[in-house]
Design brief:
seven-stranded mixed beta sheet
């Protein structure tokens, strides 16, 4: 099992990941965000790019070359600017291509201290992680001269890092992020998690405009429990993620939509198309 995890982890960090360039059509160049808008791009699975109104680039769980993204190699090659890389937990499908992107762009790592230190030991540039971008649950960071604030939100899952074959290391507790953009929305990325009642506290401290919610089941909450999580958080809009990447992730957007109605949530369901940026 550890050998399989290492192989998957290594593939995720390399240019020869699951999405092969020869199998994909070149992706169209992303349109710039409208003036004063925040732009959100989904790369499949739990990987997102956020571009702030001031042009700062944030990547969250950047497994760009995941099996759902047929243009993964091209997308990765084009990622030549990133200011921050946020990683929710240490599993290969969330660390993804972070090390390669960090070395190319100089992006600083935003993570809990346990996870950040584990990732540095696994190859993330040491000088790109420290007290300024490391934190823990209950804390909030002010970054990029106040352009972005990041609050650490707990999650119910696991977190290990596998930097080498048969080398599985503990990497602290898993989590999510509440990302507040100056002049833009507050975005809650759940990370991998189950439903838990303290989700109701997230919006007690800050209104959530957009919730990026895992719905795949098997390793995370499925559509029914995810819908109840949305009802607790009370976002204006919910974007489903972490589904369909592997056969075991059986949750669907259609089922999620039905469960949202059952849960009585007024949140707008906004499924995204991979590689198609949207203005928030």
């Amino acid at each position: 099992m550890h050998s399989r995890l290492f192989v998957a982890f290594a593939a995720a960090l390399s240019l020869s990941g699951a999405a092969r360039a020869g199998d994909a059509k070149p992706a169209a160049a992303a349109a710039p965000a409208a003036a004063g808008k925040t732009q959100l791009t989904w790369y499949g699975h739990a990987a997102f790019k956020i571009v702030t109104p001031a042009g700062k680039v944030l990547l969250v769980d950047p497994w760009i070359q995941n099996p759902s993204n047929k243009n993964g190699a091209d997308d990765l090659a084009r990622l030549d600017k990133a200011d921050l890389i946020l990683i929710t937990h240490g599993h290969f499908d969330h660390v993804g291509n972070a090390v390669e992107i960090a070395k190319k762009t100089g992006a600083k790592l935003v993570a809990t201290f346990d996870l950040g230190n584990a990732l540095v030991a696994a190859g993330y540039p040491k000088e790109q992680f420290g007290f300024d971008t490391g934190g823990n649950f209950g804390g909030e960071l002010t970054l990029l001269d106040g352009e972005v604030k990041v609050a650490f939100i707990p999650a119910v899952h696991g977190s290990t890092v596998s930097p080498a074959e048969n080398d599985v290391r503990q990497a602290g507790n898993p989590g999510g992020f509440l990302i507040t953009i100056r002049g833009g929305p507050a975005i809650y990325h759940t990370g991998d998690t189950d439903l838990f009642s303290d989700m109701s506290l997230v919006s007690k401290f800050h209104k959530v405009d957009v919730m990026l919610a895992c719905i795949g089941d098997h390793f995370t909450m499925g559509p029914s429990r995810a819908a109840r999580a949305v009802a607790l958080v009370k976002p204006a809009t919910v974007v489903p993620m972490h589904f369909g990447t592997f056969p075991v992730l059986t949750g669907t957007v259609e089922e999620f939509g039905k469960e949202l109605k059952k849960a009585g949530s007024p949140a707008k369901l906004k499924p995204l198309t991979i590689d198609q940026p949207v203005d928030l």
